[in-house]
Structure to design on (204 residues):
């Protein structure tokens, strides 16, 4: 069975551009993969702690030497890693805050980049053969030709992290200029429809 893992990060619920892009993507993916399974990890509903000293101590302790407290400290991280390893296609849906990803997404990344699980001890990624799609909503435009193209930190960062863990087949759908929806200049539906051809190709 083909499995799609969706990582949601926006706090805006139904008003979120990235979450609405996800809905369109999942609908297309389910048409292409009628027997597939969709697993949603909503980071806004996950009590995701930042990395702490006890977490790091557990991380750098061999599994056979970890205390029960150490195993507990890593339990959510283990769960997140297992979801990622089990997926064939990963969708990361995210807004852009101050030119980069939200803190909750950075926290998820810190939990899933794990030596021996997603990253080899030789520094090579272990998650080969997977596909990733990034659905990115931003108020500004950072695509080719934009005068602020050099501020596109979020795309570069996510591509780098995915490559580090071994995922190189990455499609980024950049829904830039989304502020026109908040300003009431364009309806949300009209804005979202602009990206349907890209979404359809990535979902297929």
């Amino acid at each position: 069975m083909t499995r799609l893992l969706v990582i949601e990060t926006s706090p805006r619920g139904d008003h979120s551009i990235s979450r609405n892009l996800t809905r369109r993507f999942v609908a297309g993916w389910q048409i292409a993969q009628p027997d597939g399974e969709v697993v949603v990890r909503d980071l806004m509903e996950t009590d995701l702690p930042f990395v702490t000293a006890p977490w790091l101590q557990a991380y750098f302790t061999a599994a056979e030497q970890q205390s029960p407290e150490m195993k507990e400290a890593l339990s959510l991280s283990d769960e997140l890693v297992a979801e990622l390893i089990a997926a064939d296609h990963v969708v990361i849906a995210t807004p852009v805050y101050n030119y980069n990803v939200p803190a909750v997404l950075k926290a998820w990344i810190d939990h899933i980049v794990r030596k021996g699980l997603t990253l080899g001890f030789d520094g090579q990624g272990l998650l080969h053969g997977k596909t990733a799609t990034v659905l990115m909503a931003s108020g500004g435009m950072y695509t080719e030709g934009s005068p602020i193209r050099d501020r596109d930190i979020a795309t570069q960062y996510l591509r780098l992290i995915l490559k580090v863990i071994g995922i190189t087949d990455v499609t980024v759908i950049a829904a830039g200029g989304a502020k026109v929806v908040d300003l009431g200049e364009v309806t949300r539906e009209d804005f979202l429809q602009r990206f349907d051809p890209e979404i359809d190709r990535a979902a297929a």
